[in-house]
Design goal:
globular; 2 domains; 5-stranded parallel beta sheet; Aconitase, domain 3; 14 helices; 426 residues; alpha/beta
Length: 426
């Protein structure tokens, strides 16, 4: 009997010939991510009586969730993290302005096929876009890995999602991801390993592929995986050519693929050609409807950013929509690139000039208002249309505000008209 991706990765990492669903294994992650929450993790780690972290070369720390620091407490947290990084000799440290943790780790070449990457952030499923096993963990778990270098993991059931066909005009990977969540529900993948298969996936660009494993966190999955192929390698080679060109030659060294006769807990098929632009309505991510059902809803804020959608492809389509137009006078458009490198590339290509000329407001690369503790928080009663991944009540910092989730093209079009709008209308 064959094995799934998750079964193979966890067996290899645990030094076992094979594992079964439900088995608990002792794993040694190849990389552990923490971000601004490192300040709290440091306190827990010190309570364990530790003087040195076990594997400093396997730790990555970013400052991105409240960056630059908006309060004295955030500034103090950042200062403690910087001191800890210097004390422990942690080289994979990325300070304010470098960008969102998930994008940065991929750009730095730290994410490669077959690696086991655990992050103290729920959207660590993101790393599956590069063929890795990426999963979110809690702060105490991260502290324990700092101390011991290992953690126990339960081998998850696997779900196979096959996508065929190609997406139509103005339909994006974000629409596909929202549609899948709308069909399967926010608990449709609880603690499961999701595998994406089919020509509908291989047809996607790399920027688009990042969207799907990231969004799967909203379906409760443990991890989400895509096969490492030449499209991924080409992106990786460009991302690392200036600082670590040797990594491209090792890219497939630990790649893992499921067996053709692997057993899955469930299998789903989706035809990309039938999907239209989607919108997730307040206050759950699976409250998904076709855009036409909510077209015309007034919006006061449009937000293009976050680890789900703030890459070059996303800024390019927004610039295409906004070229020669202005943001609606009753609406504000906030644009935050996912990383400093993306910001520089968008500047070089002229996308930022187009967005700024249209009236957009540009933020420092990072998470921005996504989790409600940084700049861009909506006022009570306001409606935000966002390219983010979550829209539960209070997510952006204001309980009495509403969040609709959509693709960057829809966000940009809605900023122009001041209401939820199909970009094709413009």
């Amino acid at each position: 009997m064959g094995h799934t991706f998750a079964e193979k990765v966890l067996a290899r990492n645990a030094g076992l010939a094979e594992v079964q669903v439900g088995q608990v294994v002792d794993a040694s992650p190849d990389l552990v991510l923490t971000h601004d929450n490192s300040a709290a993790i440091i306190k827990t780690w010190r309570q364990l009586g530790q003087a040195r972290v076990r594997n400093p070369d396997r730790l990555a720390i970013t400052l991105d969730h409240a960056a630059p620091a908006p309060t004295t407490q955030h500034a103090q947290n950042h200062a403690e993290v910087r001191a800890f990084v210097a004390e422990q000799g942690i080289t994979h440290f990325y300070d304010v302005g470098r960008g969102i943790c998930h994008q940065v780790l991929c750009e730095e070449g730290l994410v490669r096929p077959g690696l086991l990457i655990l992050g103290a952030d729920s959207h660590s499923t993101h790393y599956g876009a590069l063929g890795a096993f990426g999963a979110g963990i809690g702060r105490s778990e991260a502290a324990a890995i700092w101390a011991t270098g290992s953690i126990w993991l339960r081998v998850p059931e696997s779900i196979k999602i096959t996508v065929t066909g190609t997406l139509g005009p103005w339909v994006t990977a974000k629409d596909l991801g929202l549609y899948i969540i709308g069909q399967l529900g926010v608990e449709g993948g609880n603690y499961a390993s999701v595998e994406f298969h089919g020509d509908g996936i291989t047809a996607l660009s790399m920027d688009s592929r990042f969207v799907l494993p990231n969004l799967m966190a909203e379906m409760g999955v443990k991890n989400a995986w895509m096969a490492a192929d030449e499209v991924i390698l080409a992106w990786f080679r460009r991302a690392t050519e200036t600082h670590a060109p040797e990594l491209a030659g090792q890219f497939f060294a630990r790649a893992v693929y499921p067996d053709a006769d692997a057993t899955y807990a469930a299998e789903y098929h989706f035809d990309a050609t039938t999907i239209e632009p989607q919108v997730a309505c307040p206050h759950t991510v699976d409250n998904v409807v076709p855009l036409s059902r909510v077209a015309g809803v007034r919006v006061q804020q449009a937000f293009l950013g976050t680890c789900t959608n703030a890459r070059i492809e996303d800024l390019a389509v927004a610039a295409r929509v906004l070229a020669g137009r202005r943001v609606h006078p009753g609406t504000r458009l906030l644009v935050i690139p996912a990383s400093g490198r993306i910001l520089q590339e968008a500047l070089r290509l002229g996308y930022l000039a187009t967005l700024l000329e249209a009236g957009a407001v540009l933020g420092t690369p990072g998470c921005g208002p996504c989790m409600g503790n940084h700049l861009g928080v909506p006022a009570p009663g306001e409606v935000t249309i966002s390219s983010a991944n979550r829209n539960f009540r209070g997510r952006m910092g204001t309980r009495d505000a509403e969040i609709y989730l959509a693709s960057p093209a829809v966000v940009a079009a809605s900023a122009v008209t001041g209401r939820i709008t199909h970009p094709g209308e413009l």
